[in-house]
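Quick start: what a row looks like.
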Amino acid sequence: PLNLVEIERRISLIRENLRGLEEQAAALSGAAVEELNARRIADQEAQLELLIKQRDEILESRSSRPNKPSS
């Protein structure tokens, strides 16, 4: 399993990839190019959704743990 830092890093990279793909899609035309970009964007969005879910689960498990008493 990935740790929170690695998940956050991957989320950031995927968001950058999505921005680039969206700019590419706006600049290029043609059915084949549009379909390829649509698949790439959908893939990146699916990966982003999975990573956000993993991050949220980690954060939720941390917040639901009982606090250790301080010494």
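That is the whole record. Residues 31-64 form the longest helix (34 residues). The mean pLDDT is 89.
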